[in-house]
Amino acid sequence: MTSPGVHLREITDANRDAVRALRIRRDQKQFVASVSKSLKQAAATPEANPWYRAVYRGDEPVGFVMLSWSPPAGPFEGRHFLWRLLIDKRYQRRGIGREVLTQIAELVRADGAAELLTSYEPGEGEPWPFYRRFGFRPTGEIDDGEIVLRLRLSAR
């Protein structure tokens, strides 16, 4: 199931408030930080090489994605790490998250990477089933209490 017209856009003064207004379900708050908190984390940790975009479906902002893009140092040095994926509660379960991951995997592969990493905090309602269906597998690493996952990217 694909969601037509899903694309990534830079966050600008024109769309920042609309993107910051995106919300997840209450039961997901322990797993995903808000867009505002994510943007603050990105600004506070330039060494993580944050890369982020608004997720749009047509002309409507529906989500947010942020990566640590091959940072020069730290626990994920030289690796691409999916730091945040948020789809607004009104747009979940429509294939948008899957489409965003597909696009992100293509961008990371085009950058020469062989893998995309992410992590999640275990608990009731955790995102592991979503990531598992997409093809992520546990690496055996734990980072700050979160289980690290790897998606192997085939060379094209």
Automatic annotation (TrEMBL):
Q: Which GO terms describe its molecular function?
A: acyltransferase activity, transferring groups other than amino-acyl groups
A UniProt-annotated Pfam family: Acetyltransf_1
Record-annotated N-acetyltransferase domain positions:
6-154
UniProt entry keywords in alphabetical sequence: Acyltransferase, Transferase
Q: Looking at the keywords, is Transferase present?
A: yes
- In terms of domain of life, where is this protein from? Bacteria
InterPro entries on file: Acyl_CoA_acyltransferase, Bact_Acetyltransf, GNAT_dom, Sper_AcTfrase_N
Q: SUPFAM superfamilies per the record?
A: Acyl-CoA N-acyltransferases (Nat) (SSF55729)
Protein name stated in the entry: Diamine N-acetyltransferase
Which organism does this sequence originate in?
Pseudonocardia hierapolitana
